Amino acid sequence: MEAEALELDVLIYPDEVRLATPEDLREWELETASQVSIPTVRLFVALYPYNPAAMSPNRDTAAEELPFVPGQIIKVFADKDADGFYHGESGGLTGYVPSNMVAEVPVDDDYLKHILMQQGFIPVDRTGMSLTPEVSDVTSVPEDTVVRRMVALFDYDPWESSPNVDSEAEMGFRAGDIIYVLGEMDQDGFYNGDLKGRRGLVPSNFLQPLPWD
Hints:
Number of strands: 12
Strand order of the largest sheet: 6-5-4-3-7
Radius of gyration: 25 Å
Largest sheet: 5 strands, antiparallel
Low-confidence stretches: 125-139
Strand content: 25-35%
Shape: flat
Structural class: alpha+beta
Distance between the termini: 76 Å
Helix content: 10-25%
Oligomer: single chain
């Protein structure tokens, strides 16, 4: 009768050899997992339609590029290459993405990234995505006021979601709206915002900064 092989996990130390306990194995797995490098995912939004077959400057590699439409969310895993292209993923497809056709949405929170990736699109306002605000967005703003651009991560209806009893001074908006924030946040966590000429208080925890470039 043949003897069955018995596999045992052992720990080898300079002065002893002993059997590994379940606790030893769990600690080893946790330590190994912590050393695995996980690539950082960055989110970009497409500013313009892009059809590589018709628009790519690289005719030989156009098939390796990613087509997209305005507002489409694209996951990017690394910095752009020497030719100015990112490597991205969207809608189940992967390919190269021209950096001058997209803008980064600076979201650090993993949960918010998950929400935006599930959403798949952000309504793109071409005016809001421009490098400088339109005159109508900053009229009657004092010269010393700091103007910042932010993107709304969620829909906000003051009548339904406001924590304040008097919500008439607040402004509603939709996910993806580009809001110009005027000045600093108040003690209640609200900014004074401008959305296409409309002014009102907007909750800071519904917004993320959106760089000018």
